[in-house]
Design a protein that fits this description.
- The protein is an alpha/beta fold.
- 32% of the residues lie in helices and 31% in strands.
- Strands 3-1-5-4-7 form a five-stranded mixed sheet, sandwiched between helices. A two-stranded antiparallel sheet has the order 2-6.
- A hairpin with a 4-residue loop joins β4 and β5.
- α4 runs antiparallel to α5.
- The chain is globular.
Length: 153
């Protein structure tokens, strides 16, 4: 039997939350991964699970998708998305600049990620969904200006 608190908590609206990292290489190109389950490229990241913070999710997803252990600290952008079927929050954190030695350590899970690569920003817009591309552009601006951006779409 559920307590009153459990009933109340169950009745609250649920929102999806996604969390990813913006990684650059020494040429300021953006790291994208190509998932096996979709046609477009993504930044490393994924869905925030129950009782997991966006930073914890980001670090977990980086480990799962790239095999890298990183410490994520700086938030660049939060976007609220209202869609016809639900709404969500998307976070992009600064992943930093990956050096050649780190790039060589990347190990992809073949069941989830087909490939990865670094791409100039103008190419990112052709490989990702437009919403993600716009978020990446704003995340780069936030990084350059040392600020945090909130936006709604």
């Amino acid at each position: 039997m559920q307590s009153e608190k459990e009933k109340y908590l169950e009745s609250l609206p649920k929102k999806r939350v996604g969390s990813g990292a913006l990684f650059l290489n020494e040429q300021n190109e953006v790291l994208l991964v190509q998932p096996t389950y979709k046609d477009t490229y993504e930044i490393p990241g994924g869905v925030v699970e129950k009782n997991e913070s966006p930073i914890e999710a980001c670090q977990r997803e980086i480990m799962e998708e790239l095999g890298l252990t990183v410490t994520i600290e700086k938030l660049l952008i939060v976007e609220y998305q209202k869609q016809e079927y639900d709404d969500c929050f998307m976070f992009i954190f600064e992943g930093g600049i990956l050096r050649k030695e780190q790039i060589l350590q990347i190990k992809l899970p073949p069941q989830e990620i087909k490939s990865f690569g670094f791409h100039p920003l103008e190419m990112v817009g052709k490989l990702t969904q437009q919403r993600l591309y716009q978020r990446i552009v704003k995340a780069i601006n936030a990084l350059e200006k040392n600020q945090l951006i909130y936006q709604e779409s």
